[in-house]
Amino acid sequence: MVLFFAPVVLSQGSAQIPAEKSKVNAWFDSTIKPLKERAGTLDPDVAKAEAEPKIIKVKKGGGDFDTITKAIASVPIGNSKRVIISIAPGVYNEKITIDRNKPYVTLLGDPKNMPNVTFDGTAKKYGTVDSATIIALSGYFVAAYINIVNSAPQPDGKMVGAQAVALRVLGDRSAFYGVNLYGFQDTLCDDRGNHFFKDCNIRGTVDFIFGSGKSLYLNSEIYVEPDPGLTVITAQARESESEDTGYSFVHGKITGEAKGAFLGRAWKSSPRVVTVFYGEYKCTGEGASPSGREPFAKQLTEKEVQPFISLDFIGATKWLLPPPKI
Predict the structure, then answer these.
(1) Which positions ≥6 away from 290 have C-beta within 8 Å?
(2) Where in the numbering of this chain does the Pectinesterase catalytic domain appear (predicted)?
(3) Catalytic: which of 172, 207, 227, 244?
């Protein structure tokens, strides 16, 4: 198993994330600008798809549809235009799948009163990855300001198939803004593709960020729930040193009520996890000292860390846009 604990350093180039956390939002706004200010910088297909978004409203007892599932069903197969599904506050007890043939779908909530999308699927009934409350298989998927919950009971270590995923993301070039993910074991299946998470909160107990995605987590909180057994944050599934995947956590924080937790453990043969939080040597709080690290934990040099603290890690400057406003 390979774990990288990477120091943050200020680098040249707009794609590089600034060393000071207080500057991150201003940097992001100046780098990932709205579509009208990105002429010639986005992939042409992306620019075309985003030019005239369609808005669908979901609301209990009103709106265009009363469920998210019905709204997604209305998106045409082979969709080539951004479809923003605006979700009113409330609880939506649904198990949702966005199929591969429906790219450019956005689920948008109200940041001041976020909707709750919840389901109690388990590995015993659906299989682990298919137990997710939301399964995003399509490319260019976006979720912003929603709570995604798997409400299945916390595994007790005895029941077989108690794992329960809140979100599985498989589609390439997907983004998440201000999304809260609630679960215990296997909360987030960061499965495959390039993904961006900003200002998110991810909660769980065991392997609760897992898969073989290539993902950048910016300014997000990892919350470790208490568990009588082992608590482990990541289980990254990189299968060979030639496979270009990994997780990079930049300007985030790890909190929770668990009595200690492991950053990660091997699931496949060559997992890669990068954490960036003011530099490993400047971390504070319990568990921050590098003296207790395993021998394979590496302190990266300034040169080594550069690829992991840049939007270029996931090629984001060619496809990433700020969260929509309607």
Answers:
(1) 5, 280, 281, 297, 299
(2) 56-275
(3) 207
Tens of pLDDT, residue by residue over 233-264, are: 998 766 656 677 888 888 888 999 998 888 87
Picking from 141, 69, 147, 51, the residue whose alpha carbon sits closest to that of residue 105 is 141
Architecture of domain 2-152+160-318 in this structure: 3 Solenoid (2.160)
Inter-residue contact 56 to 65 (CB < 8 Å): yes
| Tokens read off for 126 | 């659906």
| Strands of 2-5's sheet in order across | 62-63, 54-59, 83-87, 105-108, 142-144, 174-177, 194-198, 214-218, 246-250, 272-276, 2-5, 298-299
Q: Which of 118, 123, 85, 89 is nearest to 104 (CA)?
A: 85
Chain segment 157-188, per-residue pLDDT in tens: 888 999 999 999 999 999 999 999 999 999 99
| Sole residue written with tokens 């490993």 | 280
**With contact defined as beta carbons under 8 Å apart, do 41 and 319 qualify?**
no
User: Amino acid identity, residue 123?
Assistant: A
64 a catalytic residue: no
Domain boundaries, the chain: 2-152+160-318
> How far is 231 from 324, CA to CA, in rounded Å?
35
Please report the pLDDT score of residue 245 as a whole number: 81
Whose structure tokens read 């976020």? 114
